[in-house]
UniProtKB/TrEMBL annotation:
SUPFAM superfamilies: NAD(P)-binding Rossmann-fold domains
Gene3D superfamilies: NAD(P)-binding Rossmann-like Domain
Pfam families noted in UniProt: Epimerase (PF01370)
Phylogenetic placement of the source organism: Bacteria, Bacillati, Actinomycetota, Actinomycetes, Mycobacteriales
The organism of origin for this protein: Gordonia pseudamarae
Protein name listed in UniProt: NAD-dependent epimerase/dehydratase family protein
Start and end residues of each NAD-dependent epimerase/dehydratase domain: 4-212
Top-level taxon of the source organism: Bacteria
Length: 306
């Protein structure tokens, strides 16, 4: 049995598809209101902030994948994410279940320095500190030998369907709707973006690779990074039209955050848009050289034509 804790999001859904195609038909989907993806899926409704419910959800699982996402609300992150991680760790220890934790990069410094699996945590805000704390919580249990686990870390998403990210909502979703894209801070810094189906496929591969455990992995991206200006130009060539864009400067966010809560929650993340974002996934590529990574050309074309 392989169990997804936090089913229903774009990464979890891709993970389920990949597990069903290549690894197992015994899949358990856990969330507050899980829905079936494959006919053979087992559904378990559970609140992962409840220790007993989490323990029951993990019971009988060989591997559990923690893919929970919460809305961008710092207070909610501070109150819920540490409890969720503690409950999941305890349940996996109790049942001898391997844990694959899907993580983000909010704990990394918002600089142009390359980011690899050894990059020291230096969060620049409340949400980043939460992510650093729960990542370290798992690392401590791994170092103590109490749990067999791995961390799979991804940069900002872009992708098809209901993919939620600033790049999708501000750039590609607006282009697809015939609206002018909005670029945060700077259109000419290199971006590291992961195609959401690639993230799900890579997470399934790591979870089913015994020697991947005990480590942190950066999930695979197209290493030919593009700037927003280049991505928008690429979208124009694919769609056959000229597409302009508007850059939203830092002062605009500073003013708007006073009255628009989502922009206030985004504000601490803006440093990563000031300069190049250089997420290094070469470790994964060296270990899995045959893994097919979606190029930006392929990804943008799929977003705009499907």
């Amino acid at each position: 049995m392989q169990t997804i804790l936090g089913a229903g999001g774009p990464i979890a859904d891709e993970l389920v598809y990949e597990l069903h195609r290549h690894h197992t038909e015994r899949i358990r989907l856990v969330s507050r209101r899980p829905t079936t993806i494959n006919d053979t899926d087992e559904l378990v409704a559970a609140d992962l902030t409840d220790a007993e419910a989490t323990d029951r959800a993990v019971a009988g699982s060989d591997i559990a994948y923690l893919t929970v996402g919460l809305p961008l609300d710092a207070q909610r992150w501070e109150s819920q994410f540490p409890i969720i991680m503690r409950n999941v760790i305890d349940a996996c220890i109790n049942h001898g279940t391997k844990l694959a934790f899907f993580d983000n990069t909010y704990m990394y410094p918002g600089t142009s320095a390359p980011q690899n699996e050894s990059t020291a945590f230096a969060p620049g805000g409340r949400k980043g500190r939460v992510r650093a704390n729960i990542a370290e919580m798992l690392l401590e249990e791994m170092r103590a030998g109490r749990i067999e686990a791995l961390t799979a870390r991804a940069p900002e998403f872009y992708g098809p369907g209901q993919t939620k990210s600033y790049t999708n909502s501000l750039v590609f979703d607006r282009i697809k709707a015939g609206r002018r894209p909005l670029v945060p801070i700077d259109a000419h810094t290199e971006r590291s973006l992961i195609w959401t189906p690639d993230a799900g496929r890579a997470l399934a591969l790591l979870g089913n690779t015994p020697d991947a455990y005990g480590q942190t992995w950066h999930l695979p991206i197209d290493p030919d990074r593009r700037t927003y200006a280049q991505l928008i130009s690429l979208a124009g060539r694919i769609s056959g039209r000229s597409i302009g864009y508007t850059v939203l400067p830092m002062f605009a966010f500073a003013l708007a955050r006073r009255v628009v809560k989502p922009l206030d929650e985004m504000y601490e993340l803006l440093d990563r848009y000031r300069g190049d974002n250089l997420f290094d996934s070469s470790k994964f590529t060296a270990r899995f050289p045959d893994f097919p990574v979606t190029t930006y050309q392929e990804g943008v074309e799929l977003i705009l034509t499907h």
